[in-house]
Design a protein that fits this description.
There is one protein chain. This protein has helices at residues 2-19, 117-120, 178-188, 246-251, 286-303, 314-318, 323-336, 405-411, 414-445, 447-457, 461-467, 475-479, 483-506, 509-513, 519-558; strands at 25-27, 30-32, 61-65, 89-96, 104-113, 128-132, 134-135, 142-143, 152-153, 159-160, 164-168, 197-204, 207-216, 240-245, 266-269, 272-278, 344-353, 356-361. Among the domains are: 2-43 and 51-216, no CATH class; 522-553. The strands form 5 sheets. Strands 3-4-5-6-11-13-12 form a 7-stranded mixed β-barrel. It is of the alpha+beta class and 559 residues long. Helix 3 packs across helix 9, helix 7 (323-336) crosses helix 9 and helix 9 (414-445) runs antiparallel to helix 13 (483-506). The protein is 37% helix and 18% strand. It is built from 15 helices and 18 strands.
Length: 559
């Protein structure tokens, strides 16, 4: 079993390692290079022509089977094909169609669903989470095995052990690559704990379910890459992992600042809700929750809705935040025009740096609604969201669209503008160009595999997306006839976006002051004006009719 786990980790490692080795590709007789410059020293990532031995015949195949465990597990009310969103169940996993050193067969795992809207709101292609385990001695049901330990080497020289992995469905991304592109760029930029993975064919109980992306889970437990985070009984010596998640504020399951063993623990700061993802309940006291909120409040006091937020010295911000991480974090989200900025799935860490707790931006996560893939489903009237031009991540707070106030106020500072501009000049023709060319190369090299997702598993997928009320697919996506055309659309979108970013970063201030108006506000305004006009006209008609009747009566009485 330990050997199988080692093989699995080596498989993901080797897949990941091959992704940084794309140098030049040809797209329909058009040469695409990596920019022709040496990668920025901050990344230390170079290209080579080496091909990984993992991909011997297209994409690897992952087979998960839980038919044997059907008689042992209880089904949940919201289960889908026997897999529940929250409760794990036993299964076996096999990896094949790759080099022998990475293959294994019938490894015991636990599987469950994952995601929020992606689990139940966007069709039958569901995301999953898998966790390696050993079978218990009595009935073969899956329980964690504390003796299961394995280590692997990550492509960027970080040694880590991982037990929990995710299978991302990309169910609302016609290119299947928007998550992947963001994670790939995050790793090139050496952003903290950016996820990484590779594409696989997935079979569930022998049924082909399409192309999925297997990647590591953002997780401090089970020996994940974030396992070096510090936990202490002293809240001033504790590190935290958190996520901005607006649904917590709206759900009202438990109040903010409350410790609870079975519910999400969160705080409410500056009009945003932040979930405390780590440490877990058993290691927390109310003092930890108080300190957690104090740190976020100290950042929001400077970068929240503060009229003086555009005149903050860098030295003052450095006492509470890792400024360099926020520069990269902002540029990546602005480049991708990620829908969730300022709303949800924004991950941060509070780390102890030089003896002081500071907030660090990242890891990056959740980019399926980005880079021109669809019109913004949360702000349907804002028709420019899918276009490659226009400000988004640092948009004005006085707008009809949920703002990312921290990013906006950071960009109001001239020193941050200068650092963002300098950093963009470093990475534009290096890491960003490498990411853009890499996704095109990947689509070409495995076009048959990606097309199989559409032809065999989900033949009417794009048509179903177009009819989905929560998804508004741009015309370019509806007209694409192959996976390669979807990726070409994203490739060209990034090219135009990069040109827009050049001009924007040269003079950001006019864009920062521009208010994005969501069309529903216009509709409401028109409705209110129409109602007023209709009411005035109705009242005028009413009084006119009454006056006419009065005159008739007077005329009749006079006669």
């Amino acid at each position: 079993m330990v050997k199988s786990l080692i093989c699995f980790c080596l498989f993901v490692l080797a897949c990941s390692a091959s992704l940084a080795r794309v140098d030049c590709v040809t797209v329909r007789s058009q040469s695409v290079s990596g920019g022709g410059q040496t990668p920025a020293t901050r990344t230390g990532v170079a290209s080579s022509g080496t091909t990984s031995p993992v991909y011997v015949n297209g994409l690897p195949v992952v087979e998960i089977d839980f038919t044997y465990f059907n008689c042992l597990d209880n089904y949940m009310n919201d289960s889908y094909r026997g897999i529940d969103r929250d409760a794990r169940r036993g299964a076996t996993m096999t990896i094949s169609n790759t080099s022998e050193e990475f293959e294994f067969q019938d490894q015991f795992i636990q599987i469950r669903g994952r995601g929020n809207s992606t689990w139940a709101s966007h069709g039958d292609k569901r995301p999953y989470q898998i966790r390696f385990n050993g079978p218990s001695a009595n009935n073969q049901t899956m329980r964690p095995s504390p003796t299961t330990q394995y280590r692997t080497r990550y492509m960027f020289d970080s040694s880590y052990a991982a037990r929990t992995w995710t299978l991302i469905a990309n169910a609302i991304d016609a290119s299947l690559m928007r998550h992947y592109a963001a994670y790939y760029l995050g790793n090139l930029l050496r952003m903290p704990f950016a996820p990484y993975g590779w594409f696989v064919h997935l079979y569930l109980n022998g049924e082909y379910r399409g192309v999925y992306m297997m990647c590591d889970q953002i997780n401090v437990h089970d020996g994940g890459r974030m396992a070096d985070m510090v936990r202490s009984s002293n809240p001033y010596q504790t590190e935290f992992l958190l996520e901005m998640c607006e649904r917590l504020h709206r759900s009202g399951v438990i109040p903010a600042n409350t410790l609870h063993p079975n519910e999400d623990m969160w705080v409410y700061v500056g009009g945003k809700s932040y979930e405390l993802a780590w440490p877990s309940y058993e290691y927390l006291t109310q003092a930890h929750m108080t300190r957690f909120r104090e740190i976020l409040q100290s950042v929001d006091n400077l970068l929240g809705r503060n009229s003086n937020a555009g005149n903050i010295p860098r030295e003052q911000l450095e006492t509470i935040m890792d400024v360099d991480s926020f520069v990269d974090f902002y540029l990546l989200h602005e480049l991708f025009k990620n829908s969730d900025v300022g709303y949800s799935s924004m991950r941060y860490q509070i780390r102890i740096q030089n003896g002081v707790q500071r907030i660090v931006a990242g890891p990056v996560w959740d980019f399926d609604i980005s880079s021109g893939g669809m019109m913004n489903p949360w702000f349907r009237g804002y028709r420019d969201f899918h276009r490659p031009t226009g400000i988004w991540a640092a948009r004005c707070p006085r707008t009809g669209v949920r703002p990312a106030v921290w990013f906006h106020n950071l960009m109001r500072n001239e020193w941050f503008q200068e650092e963002a501009r300098h950093r963009w000049d470093e990475i534009r023709n290096n890491e960003v160009a490498q990411m853009k060319n890499h996704i095109m190369s990947l689509a070409i090299n495995h076009s048959d595999c990606f097309d199989r997702n559409f032809d065999e598993a989900w033949p009417n997928w794009i048509r179903q997306l177009a009819r989905d009320r929560q998804v508004r697919v741009p015309t370019e996506i509806r007209r694409a006839n192959s996976h390669l055309e979807h990726v070409e659309h994203m490739y060209n979108w990034f090219g135009t976006r990069m040109v827009w970013m050049d001009g924007f970063l040269e003079n950001p201030n006019p864009h920062l002051d521009r208010q994005i108006r969501s069309r529903p506000i216009v509709y409401i305004s028109i409705g209110v004006v129409g109602l007023v006009v209709f009411s005035v006209a109705g009242m005028a008609t009413f009084f006119a009719v009454r006056e006419n009747k009065k005159r008739k009566k007077e005329a009749e009485s006079g006669n």
